[in-house]
Amino acid sequence: MFRRKAEERTGSPEALRLESVRRVYGAEGNQVNALDGVSLSLPKGSFTAVMGPSGSGKSTFLHCAAGLDQPTGGRVFVDGEELAGRNEAALTKFRRERIGFVFQQFNLLPALTVMQNVTLPLKLAGRKADPEQARAVLARVGLGERLHHRPSELSGGQQQRVAIARALVTRPSVLFGDEPTGALDTRSARDVLALLQEAVRMYGQTVVMVTHDPVAASYADSVLFLADGRIVGRMTAPTAEAVAERMTHLSDEIIPAVA
Amino acid sequence: MFGLALRTLRFRAGGFAAAFLSMFLGASILMTFGSMYDTAVLGGASGTGQETMVTMASVVGGWGLLLVVFAVASTLTLSVRQRAEEIALLKSVGATPRQLRRMIVGEAAVLAMAAVACAVMPAALAGRGLLELLISTGQVNADVSYVFGPLAVPMGLVITFVAATGAALLAVRRTARMRVTESIADAATDQGRMSKKRIAGAVLFLLLGLDLAIVTATAMRNEGSDAMSTAGQASIYAAIGMALLGPIMIRRVVAVLAGTVERLGGVTGYLAVCNLRRRTGQLAGALTPIVLFTAIATGTLYMQSTENAALEAAGLAKSVEQKNIETLNLVVIGMIVVFAAIMLVNTLLAATTYRGREFGQQRLAGSTRRQVLGMVALEGAVLTVTGVLLGTVAALFTILPYASVRLGSALPEGSPVVYAGVTALAVVLTLGTALGAARRAVRSPAVAAVTV
User: Fold this and answer.
1) A48 DSSP β-pair partners
2) Contacts of B450 in chain A (CB under 8 A)
3) Membrane-spanning regions, if any (chain B) (predicted)?
4) Does the N terminus or the C terminus of chain B have fewer Cβ atoms within 10 A?
5) Nearest-by-CA chain A residue for B359
6) Which residues pair with A209 in a beta bridge?
7) Is the CB of B366 less than 8 angstroms away from the CB of A151?
8) Domain-embedded: residue A36
9) Quick one: DSSP state of residue A20?
10) Do B450 and A108 lie within an 8 Å CB cutoff?
């Protein structure tokens, strides 16, 4: 049910591509380079964690890559199609067709039931909201029995699993996670990460996850390290210890530079 | 804490705009009609002219007091609630409830003073205009000279001040009882259930309205235009009762309209219906001013036109007293309309702005801005339909008995244009405010909206 449709769309082997993306905040004279020329290419079916200390540009990276924010310079391609130069409405339509989100704060709509939350992106896109498909995705994340509960009646871990089901139901080209385990206890965090991993391994979903937690990052196939708006390192087949070790040194390198 | 109150006022002038506006308008009206007292006592008036002016000042003054307390309480409660975070912060750094109370009452007191000061000039001018109107319609002798001050200013000052500080105390009490997390959970689990107290209140007010309607139709049958005194109040009590039943009524109307709204609005209609079902409690707050406005405006205007038709049919010219009553009716309606409009706009603005995060979440789930605005418009439309419907039913408590007494018919006299105008105003105010606030709320990027 997480069957990928990207191949049918463009045939591009890349799910996400950034070419020297820059994002500058602030007024003239008081500018901050949140992203300073980031280039990368992520293949389909990859699970990538993006790590970095606070202020490294992780969130900006995610927002620019996912079409939530316009880069100051550079180009972003999702599934072979460029994101730039669109107005807000066109970007929204692009996002709801090709991008799924999972946020730290879940961002489920409080007035809708679990089932209604999951089918919402399909309805908004004017697609047929197949209840069987939504039910199957919810069963997959272990919430097949909770279809008619409201988000406020669920635990944090359950809400995040609803959010994952909602992100997967449109079969996006890329699923972006913004600290998806940041508000969860250890056990729920593990469930959520396992679900993301399963979506990648079994169904070829592409996942990009921003996190500051080395354990969360260790679930990914590879880790990108971000510092001061630049990619400063990459690690494949990460373990929590190796990631933590690397992060410690990243801070070592940065602190003297700032001071 | 008083120093903090002053700094807060200066820093957050915008947040107090609605409270200030209702105090300013209240003080203006109170002083305008207060000057009729001044003129009646010191301006050389006598006989019926004097009586007219005193009646006018007391009736409108009484209404004004009620409206000022009501409007100031509702606007201040909202502005205090919106600052829940700031108040929690003050608590966490050691402000006692007593100090917070002093701060908020202090803010209200300063606002009241400023409002009265600003209102003196407009009130003096409006009072002069009112006297000229009374003279030109022959209700007051032409040799009466205009006096403004000795009674009008203290009356405006004291009433506005007492109303404002009283309303502030009420607002603090209500906010203290409600914690921030509670109010959020409230929004999520709101089922539209009503407390027994509220239902009892609604039944009581509806019975009062019904009682006055029956009294009008029976005991007042031979009293001519004096029947206005009971008929006029019937719709006010009925409207309060209807407004208290708001949550139930919204659910009923939504149940009836859901299919149509969803068919017409597609996914935006679907979202509007979901929200209407889940947020009946909050929507009821915005419903109240719509019901009051529709009921009192429709009821009083058609009562007056029925009266005019009855006099015409009898071949009678209006007496001075009857002209007085007509002027008073129109003035009171004008006041109620203005205050109801302020309350409606303020409540809707606050409620819609408060939903900024929800709108952001919806956009992250794939809504375009246009879809969010479409949903808000449909919700506003259903809200208006419910409010106008309930208000119209309440207005019948006045109109039907009065028409039966004065014309001996079940139907009132008057142009349908009046009703269309009242309805149109309700629609414009509701939709204009909700859409304006929503448009502002969706202007920021969706990600920024959900992190606030």
Assistant:
1) A208, A222
2) 103, 105, 107
3) 12-33, 53-73, 108-131, 151-172, 199-219, 231-250, 283-303, 328-351, 372-397, 417-438
4) C
5) A109
6) A49, A177
7) no
8) no
9) E
10) no
Q: Which residue of B has its CA nearest to A108?
A: B361
How many angstroms separate the CA atoms of A218 and A220, rounded?
Answer: 5
pTM recorded for the entire structure = 0.80
How many Å apart are CA B162 and CA B65, to the nearest integer?
A: 10
Rounded Cα–Cα distance for residues B397 and B208 (Å): 10
Contact B365 A95 (CB under 8 A): no
Nearest-by-Cβ selection for B445 from A69, A95, A125: A69
Q: Which residues on chain A are in Cβ contact (under 8 Å) with B273? A: none
Burial of A38 (0-12, 13-18, 19+ CB in 10 A): buried
Can you give the residue range of the structural domain that contains A195? 44-68+87-258
Tens of each residue's pLDDT in chain A, 259 residues: 444 444 445 567 889 999 999 999 888 888 888 899 999 999 999 999 999 888 888 989 999 999 888 899 999 999 988 887 678 888 888 888 899 999 998 999 988 999 999 999 988 888 887 888 899 999 989 888 889 999 989 999 999 999 999 999 988 999 999 999 988 999 999 999 999 999 999 999 999 999 989 999 999 999 999 998 999 999 999 999 999 999 888 766 655 544 4
Contacts of A239-242 with CB under 8 Å at 24 or more apart are A240/A214, A240/A215, A241/A214
Furthest C-alpha separation in chain B: 74
Q: At B389, which amino acid appears?
A: L
Could you tell me which residues are beta bridge partners of residue A152? Answer: none
Q: Which residues of A touch B (CB under 8 A)?
A: 63, 68-69, 88-89, 92-93, 95-96, 101, 103, 105, 107-112, 116-117, 120-121, 123-126, 150-153, 166, 170
Please say whether the beta carbons of B115 and B31 come within 8 A: no
Q: What share of chain A is helix, strand, coil (3-state, %, to 5)?
A: 40, 25, 35
Helix (H, G, I), strand (E, B) or coil at A84: coil
A244 domain residue, yes or no: yes
What are the backbone dihedrals phi and psi of residue B443, each rounded to the nearest 5 degrees, phi first? Answer: -70, -35
Two structure tokens written together for B234: 């019937």
- Cβ–Cβ gap B364/A107 under 8 Å: yes
Task: Give this complex's ipTM.
Answer: 0.83
Task: Please indicate, yes or no, if residue A217 is contained in any of the structural domains.
Answer: yes
Sequence-distant (6+) residues with CB within 8 A of A255 are none
Distances (CA, A) of A79 to A5, A16, A197, B263, B370: 11, 6, 20, 35, 26
Nearest Cα to A224, choosing from A34, A41, A29?
A: A41
Q: Which residues contact B58 (CB under 8 A, 6 or more apart)?
A: none
Residue B147: phi, psi to the nearest 5? -125, 130
Q: Which residues of B touch A105 (CB under 8 A)?
A: 450
- Counted domains in chain A: 1
Cα distance between the two ends of chain A: 51
Which amino acid is it at B236?
I
The answer to whether the beta carbons of residues B137 and B323 sit under 8 Å apart is yes
Give me the amino acid identity at B221: R
Interface size between A and B, measured as CB pairs under 8 A: 73
Report yes or no on A15 lying in a domain.
no
- Max CA distance (Å), chain A: 57
Look up the CATH number of the domain holding residue A185.
3.40.50.300
Put simply, whether B222 touches A (Cβ < 8 Å) is no
